[in-house]
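Input/output pair, single chain:
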Amino acid sequence: MKPLQTIPPEIKGEDIEIEHIRGSGPGGQHRNKRFTGIRMTHLPTGLVVMATERRSQKQNLMLAYERLDERITKHFHKAVPRVATRVSKTQKKKRLSDKRTVASKKQGRRFQENSDD
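Output:
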């Protein structure tokens, strides 16, 4: 993870609400009594991200910006619609020919009873 030095250009400062929260879980006294966790809300979209795993507020802030940037990118991403295509006649003939070849090979491997008895 490369550290971000500034806010990503896609995110405007006035569109973000930042809350400093206390992180829970392991980490001891430092983590339990300091407000190092970050909860970031992107107001136009309502997306919320949290970063509480670091002991440093600055590191959590940068991590939250990264996560928010990823979530906003994913939120506004539009999937390209699939264009239906058809298999050409030549390809169909080749596929069926290959299937016949394999089938005849397998046919030759089958056990044949002796009818001379």
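Confidence is low (pLDDT under 50) at residues 1-5. The first strand starts at residue 16 and ends at 21.
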